[in-house]
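Hi team,

Filling in the usual template for the complex we talked about on Friday. All components are listed, including any nucleic acid strands or ligand strings, so the model treats them as one assembly.

SUBMITTER: L.P.
PURPOSE: interface mapping
COMPONENTS: two
RESIDUES: 628
SEQUENCES:
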Amino acid sequence: MKALQKQDLLDCHQRIAEHIHRTPVLTSRLLNEISGAELFFKCENFQRMGAFKMRGAAHAISRLTKEQQQRGVVTHSSGNFAQALSLAARSLGVDAYIVMPNNAPQVKKDAVKGYGGQIIECEPTLTAREKAAKKIVEKYGATFIHPSNDLDVILGQGTAAQELLEDQPNLDNIFTPVGGGGLIAGSALAAHFFGNDCKTIGGEPFEVDDAYRSLKSGKIEFNETTNTIADGLKTQLGDINFPIIQKYVDRIIRVEEQEIIEAMRLIWERMKIIIEPSCAVPFAALLRERTSFKGKKVGIILSGGNVDLGKLPF
Amino acid sequence: MKALQKQDLLDCHQRIAEHIHRTPVLTSRLLNEISGAELFFKCENFQRMGAFKMRGAAHAISRLTKEQQQRGVVTHSSGNFAQALSLAARSLGVDAYIVMPNNAPQVKKDAVKGYGGQIIECEPTLTAREKAAKKIVEKYGATFIHPSNDLDVILGQGTAAQELLEDQPNLDNIFTPVGGGGLIAGSALAAHFFGNDCKTIGGEPFEVDDAYRSLKSGKIEFNETTNTIADGLKTQLGDINFPIIQKYVDRIIRVEEQEIIEAMRLIWERMKIIIEPSCAVPFAALLRERTSFKGKKVGIILSGGNVDLGKLPF
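RESULT (copied from the run log):
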């Protein structure tokens, strides 16, 4: 893999600019008081389709050749990346095939269809998903795009932190959640290239602390169970994002489920914005170790706002 | 009453500017598609203490003499105005006495205390509330400030629409909820002085349609029952705001309870922001009569975001 440069992120941002929102950075006096830090929330919950994943999806598609674009893209996901790839594909005039387990909630299927994605249902196992995606690749010549373990996706996700640092160049830290590793890897690259000694810190639930353990052991670890409310963070790292995380991420702070719910509630009640549980994890991590960040300027990537209002934890 | 001038609103805004947030104006492609209009949401849910009432409270206090300010202010309210007067008073270095019914929820009492207001409890009747407030006026020489039927409060509330028209000078309409009448009266004044033939329209629940009936009958009407989810809109108009509403408001559109809940849900899910039920009423009104506003530029005052997350209607 060729070493990444600052220019790679600048090029990426330029490529995707017309397909994404430049999301606002919000502040809250009350949350500053509670945390003891000066906080800057990068609101990717206001991003198109409601999450940062729009950035990586748009970038990955934009990097395909015209011929590849004509044959479409495919992924397997039942979460935000399914919606992101569908909308990004529509935005770029490309077909998107989304492999989803046949037990995925109807609301998720409807969202993908609403953004123009074509759903291929399969049995709810990883093997069945991979097989179904492979079939689409063979049948249509579509390009498979991984939700997090893809360099173009990683660069795309990094543009949120890049924009945040353009607005606030002197952040001491950037906090992100850690799921499949795309967001934190991209953010850490952006902090490295655009920050002024800005350290990237991950927030991860104790219940799915594979990334924390991976950094300790030096190899990609897995979760045996995934009993967390942060449903976007159940996936594990990949061989492309893990080396970037090892090199550029300062550390990962783990949080309890109750801390995630409390952090989510604080942001809902005090900032009046809707974030999904996974999105509350980095703020929960900051609160857990607030004494270490007293007086610091801290950026927090609010990763997404797609929640089922019928299933809230409060 | 001396005729109001454009300058009165300009002076008001200048007086309160340091005590309020200039709230953002958000847009949503999806809600534009759904409504058929071009919508501009003025986000007073992001205002200090979570509602536009901060504006009127700050203005009313700022207009008192130094001597009056030293003796404090008093109101009776268990809603947003209690919090607004408490925070505005603290912001201006003034004592605030808040008369609340002894059955008010603890969370509301805590909010008032959190903003520095001093609570005086009384029996939960209007007579008891008025008596308790009168006692404070006599004991401390405090000035009573009405939540909506006070010219300085009305002007203060009007500054939200004024800011919205500074940002979007060519709105065809401004929609607001109608409760006690302060917000819609102030907004209609702002639309008159700062708009370009901009018509002000109220949204009101059928269940508490006193203002709708008042405009029809030409005198202030009351509600016999108040079975609405829009708990901020249960109050009736007053003799100071009603003439302004008669003169400057175009009309009032009534909505069903289910329409309020659906409008609230649309804004939560699509815009990822938290609004209270009362705040969804003008958007519900627009959706109900969307054919009349097709292609129009419509401003909507999102009045507040203080909801009890434990008691959501979805």
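MY TAKE: The first strand of chain A starts at residue 25 and ends at 26. Residues 151-167 of chain A form the longest helix (17 residues).

Thanks, L.
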